[in-house]
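Lab meeting, item 3. Inverse folding demo.
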């Protein structure tokens, strides 16, 4: 069974940092485009950052310059380094993997809670 497991969510003060991890299993990780999404209470899920199977990255305007997405294909892991956190970054963060050749192979993790509050 293909699986994505996120971790690293926590309660942090404004201005703080967190690093989220997403570990994949039973997929050819290096052939998947990976994205981090987030969903705050009462809001729609939004794309935060993406990293393509071959490396290019993209960020939502709201996190550009504060968040960094990276991947380690040897560890089947993608990371989201989040700096200068703001209360509006509070959300459940989800990892999504899509096979670069066929988007029908599309997997989600269960999410990890990030709360930014003093």
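The presenter then showed the designed sequence:
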């Amino acid at each position: 069974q293909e699986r994505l497991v996120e971790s690293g969510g926590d309660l942090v003060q404004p201005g703080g940092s967190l690093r989220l991890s997403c570990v994949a299993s039973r997929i050819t990780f290096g052939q998947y485009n990976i994205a981090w999404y987030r969903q705050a209470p009462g809001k729609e899920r939004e794309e935060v950052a993406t990293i393509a199977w071959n490396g290019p990255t993209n960020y939502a305007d709201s996190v550009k310059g504060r968040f960094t997405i990276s991947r380690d294909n040897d560890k089947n892991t993608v990371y989201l380094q989040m700096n200068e956190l703001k209360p509006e970054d509070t959300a459940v963060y989800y990892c999504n993997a899509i096979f670069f050749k066929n988007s029908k192979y599309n997997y989600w993790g269960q999410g990890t809670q990030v709360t930014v509050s003093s």
